[in-house]
Amino acid sequence: xxxxxxxxxxxxxxxxxxxxxxxxxxxxxxxxxxxxxxxxxxxxxxxxxxxxxxxxxxxxxxxxxxxxxxxxxx
Length: 74
Known about the structure:
The protein is mainly α. It has helices at 3-13, 15-18, 23-33, 56-60; strands at 37-38, 53-54. Strands 1-2 form a two-stranded antiparallel sheet.
């Protein structure tokens, strides 16, 4: 999913979030810090910036852990 698609979802579904200043920076920060999200695998290719995927284990385990649990160790 592209970062723009994530922003669009927030603008359509989370009006109280997008009303605050800096909401896009907050989303980028949380995507990079949360172990449930990662850039798609790009073996042998340049990594495409702005693309993210949800780890299937996060869905199986019942959701996305909060970013307060620690820094992503990629």
